[in-house]
TrEMBL record:
InterPro entries xrefs: Put_SAM_MeTrfase, SAM-dependent_MTases_sf
Source species of the chain: Oryza punctata (Red rice)
Transmembrane segments: 12-34
EC nos: 2.1.1.-
Protein name: Methyltransferase
Membrane topology recorded in Swiss-Prot or TrEMBL: Single-pass type II membrane protein; Single-pass membrane protein
Length: 616
């Protein structure tokens, strides 16, 4: 009888236990739903804990996820691929502007200085080594004036440009006094002169293009006036000029006006500038001025200083004949008239033109038989497209006082205003409401980022790249004088959004991430990539993209990648073999969201092993 009683008791206890378990499950389900609704304290507590997490060093974590497909046995035993350092001779390797490869192409019209990327079989599969003694750059604004010698150990410019005050070598640093070929007394005085004509102070001019920029002192000194300049120069005999610019914390890319269109959208820049940049503006039927006209916003300014401006006074110093210089200036004036630019003023060796607001305000353009108009239906389709001697049309207007393409507010008001391209329906499928929603989302993402990487908004990361920029929401959310963002719009994106990014007062460039970027190694402090690997799935190798990210990232630089959990799991396996420390974090909306965020920090290491073998 005792045995039977015990069995009954056990059944009773089992039933009671089951009821308790079911009751607790229901209770916690309801509690979770209540917290998710925003009325509970659970979310705020979790957020506070996250905020207190010190992520100066990002530890390796478990990558168990809620959404992975069932793992195959082979997935569980895949070893991490270890990437070896490249030989030291590749320290400053620029794959698409390699000097040896460049010499195989024609010199005519600077073709050999354009992008010529290696085929897949010639790509390096090793880590580009920093030079021995490499150190972190000085923080901005000190970096504008000083660069550690070990980071760019090239003294040629200190000799070639000694009298022009470009750069001086002092002890173990380079000092940049702010001079240039056309402004040996300093960029500040030069810009003061320019600002007496061009409305720089009131935010009307925010984005600028500097062609043949040297070490980008013009762009460097515009920054304190809230003007963001995109500077470019070729990789040529002036060794490391773009590298110096980026080490100084100034936006710049390797580039040239040659045979292909510039990788920028139409109507992008408020101002374009050439200070003795050696571009033959009158050559080839004015094709280079026509390309500047394409990227210049209606009402924008073109500034030309140096030969042949004011040649009557300066021809002896330039060691050229009067006849030669007069013919060159006459040709430039003729092309400017053809483009319907208004010459605003000539001051000393500086001439300033302004592009008309629209075609209606251009009397000579009414007879279009005198002007060859480009027939392309998409003026922003520029990647590897040949330049042609034609004028890019601007959108039609209803009134002569209307700005073609839409008026833009002064900066900073334009940063979060709806860009005219979106407001006017020029980006198919994108409404003003969708744009505002995107802005709100990126503010939320950046808040979550900064709770993990506490240095994000402090200025520690000066040069920042967004590899898949969309509408520039990430850059807008972190906008600050302490940093700048290179907004990259992949050429395979479904929408061409770079024009809208420029209308926000931000800068960027078109690029295909199946190829190397037009920059030197170690030129960015932080790289952001949202859905990039999903975008390039089946387009090119994930490994190649990650190795390119490693090439352009500084030692101890940071990476933030957000993508599908399965994609980031594969990315993480490769990143661990590249001397990166990583940490996988759930989406800010919780663990049930497939999109995750992978944070990484590149370890500090330098070259010095001359026998290291490059993997082919």
């Amino acid at each position: 009888m005792a045995v039977k009683a015990t069995s009954a008791d056990n059944r009773t206890r089992s039933t009671v236990s089951l009821c308790i378990v079911i009751g607790m499950c229901c209770f916690f389900y309801i509690l979770g739903a209540w917290q998710k609704s925003g009325f509970g304290k659970g979310d705020s507590i979790a957020l506070e804990i996250t905020k207190r997490t010190d992520c100066t060093i990002l530890p390796n974590l478990s990558f168990d996820t809620h959404h992975s497909k069932q793992a195959r046995p082979s997935d569980l035993v895949l070893p991490v691929k270890k990437f070896k350092p490249c030989p030291d001779r590749y320290t400053d390797y620029t794959p698409c502007q390699d000097q040896n490869r460049a010499m195989k192409f024609p010199r005519e019209n600077m073709n050999y200085r354009e992008r010529h990327c290696p085929p897949q079989k010639e790509k390096l599969h090793c880590l580009i080594p920093p030079p021995k003694g490499y150190v972190a750059p000085f923080p901005w604004p000190k970096s504008r004036d000083y660069v550690p010698f070990a980071n760019c150990p090239y003294k040629s410019l200190t000799v070639e440009k000694a009298i022009q005050n470009w750069v001086q070598f002092e002890g173990n640093v380079f000092r940049f006094p702010g001079g240039g070929t056309q402004f040996p007394q300093g960029a500040d005085k030069y810009i003061d002169q320019l600002a007496s004509v061009v409305p720089i102070a009131n935010g009307t001019v925010r984005t600028a293009l500097d062609t043949g920029c040297g070490v980008a002192s013009w762009g460097a000194y515009l920054l304190k006036r809230n003007v963001l300049a995109m500077s470019f120069a070729p990789r040529d005999s002036h060794e490391a000029q773009v590298q110096f610019a980026l080490e100084r914390g100034v936006p710049a890319v390797i580039g040239v006006l040659g045979t292909i269109k510039l990788p920028y959208p139409s109507r992008a820049f408020d101002m374009a500038h050439c200070s003795r940049c050696l571009i033959p503006w009158g050559a080839n039927g004015g094709i280079y001025m026509m390309e500047v006209d394409r990227v210049l916003r209606p009402g924008g300014y073109w500034v030309l200083s140096g030969p042949p401006i004011n040649w009557k006074v300066n021809y002896k110093g330039w060691q050229r004949t009067k006849k030669d210089l007069e013919a060159e200036q006459n040709k430039i004036e003729e092309i400017a008239d053809l483009l319907c630019w208004e010459k605003v003023k000539e001051i000393g060796e500086m001439a300033i033109w302004r592009k008309r607001l629209n075609t209606e305000s251009c009397p000579s353009r009414q007879d279009e038989s005198s002007v060859q108009m480009c027939d392309s239906t998409n003026a922003d389709d520029v990647w590897y497209k040949k330049m042609k001697p034609c004028v890019t049309p601007v959108p039609d207007v209803n009134d002569p006082s209307e700005v073609a393409g839409g008026a833009i507010k002064p900066f900073p008001s334009r940063l979060n205003a709806v860009p005219p391209r979106i407001a006017n329906g020029l980006i198919p499928g994108v409404s003003s409401q969708a744009y505002q929603k995107d802005n709100k989302m990126w503010k939320k993402h950046v808040k979550a980022y900064s709770s993990v990487n506490k240095y994000l908004l402090t200025g520690r990361y000066r040069n920042i790249m967004d590899m898949n920029a969309g509408f520039g929401g990430f850059a807008a959310a972190i906008e600050s004088p302490k940093s700048w963002v290179m907004n990259v719009v992949p050429t395979i994106s479904k929408m061409s959004t770079l024009g809208a990014i420029y209308e926000r007062g931000l800068i960027g460039i078109y690029h295909d991430w199946c190829e190397a970027f037009s920059t030197y190694p170690r030129t960015y402090d932080l790289i952001h990539a949202s859905s990039l690997f999903t975008l390039y799935k089946n387009k090119c190798n994930m490994e190649d993209i990650l190795l390119e990210m490693d090439r352009v990232l500084r030692p101890e630089g940071a990476v933030i990648m957000r993508d599908d959990v399965d994609v980031l799991t594969k990315v993480n396996r490769l990143a661990l073999g590249m001397k990166w420390n990583t940490r996988l974090v759930d989406h800010e909306d919780g663990p049930m969201v497939r999109e995750k965020v992978l944070y990484a920090v590149k370890q500090y290491w330098v070259g010095g092993n001359q026998t290291a073998a490059a993997a082919a």
